[in-house]
Specification:
The protein contains no helices and 19 strands. 0% of the residues lie in helices and 52% in strands. It has one domain (8-218).
């Protein structure tokens, strides 16, 4: 869907499902905006190269994104999710946006598998603030203007398995704050402007080799 203003705006009290949607190249505004009272599911969705942001989701349930591209949006971010429930993302990219790649704020847990949040021009690659557990597998957040990824779990743990958080321009690669245990394995956090990885947990941090990067701060 390519228009001279925005792509699509959806508002409803129930669940929302979008299958095989393209919301790209809109010349004056955003690609996709969803405000939903229930669950939101996006499958094979593109929201690229819009004038402002790619996609925004605000809802009262869970959010699932299975295969999505939210890249190259000129003046703003790729993907912004504000959810009351769990968030699950798989096979997703949010690269080369004018502001940040992806931001998630939610009242449940967050899982991201195979995600790329690279080369965002003004701010960070990925920011997650969840009430419960945060799990990342095979995630890249590199070459962003500030930091790579910032992960916060208010009352859970954080696990990062396999990831690249390199060459971010004015801050660190990976920043983690968890109420319970933080686990990191097979990650690279090298060549960042300040630190490689800053891992803070109220109980324990578990690091498993290989880990490469500029010195990590363990709190």
């Amino acid at each position: 869907m390519r228009t001279r203003t925005y792509g699509a705006q959806i508002g409803n009290a129930g669940n929302t499902t979008v299958l095989h949607g393209v919301f790209s190249g809109n010349l004056s505004a955003f690609g996709l905006d969803i405000s939903s009272g229930g669950d939101v599911m996006l499958t094979d969705v593109e929201a690229n190269d819009n004038a402002t942001y790619g996609a925004a989701v605000g809802n009262g349930g869970n959010v699932t994104v299975q295969t999505g591209s939210f890249s190259g949006n000129t003046a703003d971010y790729g993907l912004d999710i504000s959810s009351a429930g769990d968030v699950s993302l798989a096979n997703l990219e949010a690269n080369d946006n004018g502001d940040f790649g992806a931001r998630i704020s939610n009242g449940g847990g967050t899982s991201i598998v195979n995600g790329f949040f690279d080369g965002n021009l003004t701010m960070f690659g990925l920011d997650v603030s969840s009430f419960s557990d945060v799990f990342l597998m095979n995630v890249s957040a590199s070459n962003n203007n500030t930091y790579g990824a910032d992960l916060t779990s208010g009352f859970g743990g954080v696990t990062v398995k396999g990831g690249t958080f390199d060459d971010n321009n004015s801050a660190g690669g990976l920043d983690v704050s968890a109420f319970w245990t933080h686990r990191a394995a097979d990650i690279s956090a090298s060549g960042n402007a300040t630190y490689g990885a800053d891992l803070a947990a109220d109980t324990a941090c578990m690091l498993t080799a290989p880990l490469t990067g500029t010195p990590a701060a363990l709190v």
